[in-house]
Specification:
The chain has helices at residues 19-35, 49-55, 61-66, 85-94, 138-155, 170-186, 193-201, 215-219, 230-246, 290-293, 308-317, 337-350, 367-376, 387-392, 415-425, and strands at residues 39-40, 46-48, 69-71, 77-80, 103-112, 124-133, 161-166, 251-252, 266-271, 280-286, 301-307, 328-333, 357-360, 381-385, 394-399, 406-411. By secondary structure, it is of the alpha+beta class. The protein folds into two domains: 19-168 and 228-317, Bira Bifunctional Protein, Domain 2 (BirA Bifunctional Protein, domain 2); 328-425, Anticodon-binding domain (Rossmann fold). The strands form three sheets. It has an eight-stranded mixed β-sheet. A five-stranded mixed β-sheet has the order 13-12-14-15-16, with helices on both faces. The chain has a three-stranded antiparallel β-sheet with strand order 2-4-3. It is elongated. The structure holds histidyl-adenosine monophosphate.
């Protein structure tokens, strides 16, 4: 027997029982993005592999071991995007979007990383991200972070904590990196294998280690805030003051370094303890030199991405259902001429842009059976066409969720008006 076909491990189907919740979240976040002046950009899922090596960094986990990279039929090395920022920067340079003005862009869609699947960590996952180009002022950091705080308010979410740090300028970070390396070299034997590897390539990432055995060593390591350059310190203090003035609470986490190389100055993460090990729901930071590094004109930038799987998991944990309300009218009829007229009625109702879902019963059976299916479909209204209605050109409108039985037979062209009137007269 042939092997059973299954989805790729770590890649999930989103079935109709959950897709309304996803749509509800996406619509609300998009509405907030619109209010802050962000415009949508849609980009390919596949990019030249070199783009990610040059942006995310050669010695990051993502580029070293998590990318879906393949040769296409021309022998070109392509990669399924592991994140969105690199593509946005590539497209911005390619289309001359960076002209010195402030440009706000958002995107959403699947990203791909070959990580070990577990709760909150998948191989195909979905982000909504935003990038703000053309301004280095801390006011833009504050605006962007305040927008993420607005997301949670909009969704009714609580319990997310904002962690904030500054990585300083490139030069300051290079000097700090050297000090950190010297410190950890002195304690080489105490490091785990992962940290020993990172020592030469990416020592800041050791600070991020979740290994409890390293906690004391890391706590005693030279601290990043003490090595900030003066300009970055002023920038960070201003950002903190602005967030205070906007009422956005945060904690400064001097060990927050992020796993992608393009950051400098501000970095932040929204975290929760409610999701187990994968508690970062939203994360981002400044990347003021990346556009220039990729051949564009100098363009400071800041952005973030949020993981939709984690956000939906957290909404579920807090009992919040973001799905837009579903309205269903169910058309019940007998086969033959009645069914033909029912089809016509459904077609007529669906032509209205604000129509609910109008479901035709095609399974047949007696009226009782059809009414049961109407109920199971969650219908609020049944529209019945039997022999009497067919002969008279009428439809019987029955409210299914009303406190007392309510129905009325009306001419076919008055069905909408009748539903509205009956609903307003009848307590639910
Ligand atoms: P990131 O921290 O790699 O940053 O990912 C952002 C968010 O995507 C994470 O906080 C998490 O919620 C979600 N995420 C990441 N990996 C997975 C996974 N394997 N499964 C489920 N969710 C995941 C970036 O991607 C940057 N591009 C963010 C950014 C934009 N920085 C500046 N602009």
């Amino acid at each position: 027997m042939a092997a059973k076909l299954q989805a790729v491990r770590g890649m999930n189907d989103l079935l109709p029982d959950v897709s309304p919740r996803w749509r509800g979240v996406e619509q609300r976040l998009q509405a907030v993005l619109g209010r802050y002046g962000y415009e949508e950009i849609r980009l390919p899922l596949v990019e030249p592999t070199a783009l990610f090596a040059r942006t995310i960094g050669e010695v990051t986990d993502i580029v070293e071991k998590e990318m879906y990279t393949f040769l296409d039929r021309n022998g070109d090395s392509l990669t399924l995007r592991p994140e969105g920022t690199a593509g946005v920067v590539r497209a911005g340079i390619e289309h001359g979007l960076f002209q010195g003005q402030v440009l706000r862009l958002w995107y959403q869609g699947p990203m791909f990383r070959h990580e070990r699947p577990q709760r909150g960590r998948y191989r195909q996952f979905h982000q909504i991200g935003a990038e703000c180009f053309g301004g280095a002022e801390p006011e833009l950091d504050a605006e962007l972070i305040a927008m993420t705080a607005q997301f949670w308010r909009e969704l009714g979410l609580s319990g997310l904590r904002l962690e904030l740090n500054s990585l300083g300028s490139r030069e300051a970070r290079a000097a700090y990196r050297a000090q950190l390396q010297a410190y950890f070299r002195e304690h080489y034997a105490a490091l785990d294998a992962d940290s020993q590897r990172r020592l030469e390539t990416n020592p800041l990432r050791i600070l991020d280690s979740k290994n409890p055995d390293l906690a004391a060593l890391i706590a005693a390591a030279p601290s990043l805030p003490e090595h900030l350059d003066a300009d970055s310190r002023v920038h960070f203090e201003r950002l903190c003051a602005l967030l205070d003035s906007l009422g956005v609470a945060y904690t400064v986490n001097p060990r927050l370094v992020r796993g992608l190389d393009y950051y400098g100055r501000t970095v932040f993460e929204w975290v929760t303890d409610a999701l187990g090990a994968q508690g970062t729901v939203c994360a981002g930071g400044r990347y003021d030199t990346l556009v220039e590094q990729l051949g564009g004109r100098p363009t400071p930038a800041i952005g973030f991405a949020l993981g939709l799987e984690r956000l939906l998991d957290l909404l579920g944990a807090q009992g919040i259902d973001p799905a837009p309300p579903r309205r269903v009218w169910y058309v019940v009829s007998t086969p033959g001429a009645c069914r033909a007229r029912a089809l016509q009625l459904a077609q007529q109702l669906r032509a209205q842009p604000d129509a609910p879902s109008v479901l035709m019963d095609h399974a047949g059976g007696n009226f009782g059976k059809q009414m049961q299916r109407a109920d199971r479909a969650g219908a609020e209204v049944a529209l019945i066409i039997g022999e009497d209605e067919l002969a008279a050109g009428t439809v019987t409108v029955r409210l299914l969720r009303a406190a007392r039985p309510t129905q009325e037979t009306v001419p076919q062209d008055q069905v909408r008006a009748a539903v509205i009137r009956l609903a307003s007269e009848t307590p639910a």
